[in-house]
Automatic annotation (TrEMBL):
Gene Ontology MF term list: kinase activity
Any Pfam family matching the protein: BcrAD_BadFG
Entry superkingdom: Bacteria
Compositionally biased tracts (Basic and acidic residues): 329-342
Species the sequence originates in: Paenibacillus foliorum
Lineage: Bacteria, Bacillati, Bacillota, Bacilli, Bacillales
UniProt-listed Gene3D superfamilies: 3.30.420.40
Location of region: Disordered: 327-349
Protein name: N-acetylglucosamine kinase
Domain ATPase BadF/BadG/BcrA/BcrD type: 12-279
Length: 349
């Protein structure tokens, strides 16, 4: 689809596993999607993050038939970008990559995911992908609250990484004879194409992106739990409790009261129906007055809405409907892990 406007807006959603860049115009025409690896500042070296973003911008403009001079603005929702010094270095870097008129704004990826689900209205967002975080924002008071999202060393409870890590721990405990055998052993070894648990050391610790590799094992945990494996069921129940605690703490901090507050669920973990049902039916969540919505467009759409708004344009119902229809037509959805990511050399991996 060709946009009618000459202006281009770039939108980025980047986490611990992948980054998506969208190029659109000011009328809601989505011109191209490009994908790459992690752009989380706290899980990759800065030089690699810069190369990832630079390659995605170049690829996105080429794919959309756009030029650098057409870029009016870019909004990035990036994991690990809450601190002012992190945002400043991203803005400084992109100022040299983009034309002078381009407005550059950086948010935590949770805020842009929230915008994708509420179009800028008050609400909460819970993300459980490679990492986990819960945020709330009230545009009337401009109050912002975040809970969790402290990284895989001392946070990210209930995330894909957390599920995968605990699955690996259960396998090694069973291998040692410290616990009973578990279905997780065969499921994780099969997923990684290795023969025995002692091979896990090299496979995991020497992988290019250890966090992503471990997070990719969460489906094996879900499979084992659905088959009644006690170790896997316990891991899932712990993840549900941890995520519910993030939501409850966020809800209390923002003093949202008894209104039915939108709670947007985003991230690959919530794409598992078994886990989604376990979470939404848990007592801690049911006790809160929430309007729970699974994000039905990619989180990068929230960055696009912000980019359009910062140019002084309205996000109209017609634009929202057009975007939703294009996402449906292109097969774009909340979790796009089924798509192969873009490499800097223009190939798919």
């Amino acid at each position: 689809m060709t946009g009618k406007s000459n202006r281009r807006f770039l939108a980025v959603d980047g986490g611990g596993t992948k980054t998506v860049l969208l190029v659109g115009d000011d009328e809601g025409h989505l011109l191209s999607f490009s994908r790459g690896g992690s752009s989380n500042l706290k899980s990759r070296p800065w030089d690699e993050v810069k190369a990832e973003l630079s390659g995605l911008i170049r690829h996105g403009l080429e794919q959309s038939g756009s030029s650098r001079d057409q870029v009016a603005g870019i909004v990035l929702g990036l994991g690990g970008s809450d601190r002012p010094e992190d945002r400043a270095r991203i803005v400084e870097f992109l100022s040299a990559e983009l034309p002078q008129q381009a407005v550059i704004t950086v948010y935590n990826d949770a805020i842009t995911a929230l915008a994708a689900g509420t179009f800028g209205e008050r609400g909460m967002v819970l993300i459980s992908g490679t990492g986990s975080i819960c945020c709330a924002f009230d545009p009337v008071t401009e109050e912002y609250v975040r809970v969790g999202g402290w990284g895989y060393v001392f946070g990210d409870e209930g995330s894909g990484f957390d599920l995968g890590k605990k699955g690996l721990q259960a396998v090694m405990k069973a291998y040692d004879g410290r616990t009973a055998p578990t279905l997780l052993t065969d499921k994780i070894l099969t997923r990684l194409s290795i023969a025995s648990p002692d091979k896990l050391i090299t496979t995991i610790y020497e992988s290019d992106n250890m966090r992503a590799k471990v997070a990719s094992l969460s489906p094996a945990v879900f499979e084992a739990a659905k088959e009644g494996d006690a170790a896997a069921e316990f891991i899932v129940s712990e993840a549900v409790r941890e995520l519910a605690a993030l939501v409850a703490a966020t809800h209390n901090k923002l003093k949202l009261g008894s209104d039915r507050t939108p709670l947007i669920l985003s991230g690959g973990v919530f794409q598992e129906p078994y886990f989604l049902e376990s979470f939404t039916e848990c007592p801690e969540i049911r006790s809160l007055s929430l309007d729970i919505r699974c994000l039905n467009v990619p989180p990068v759409i929230g960055s696009y809405y912000f980019a359009v708004k910062q140019a002084g344009l309205l996000v109209t119902p017609e634009m929202i409907n057009r975007i939703q229809q294009q996402c449906n037509d292109k097969g774009e959805k909340q979790d796009d892990t089924a798509h192969k990511p873009y490499n800097d050399n223009g190939t798919n991996q």
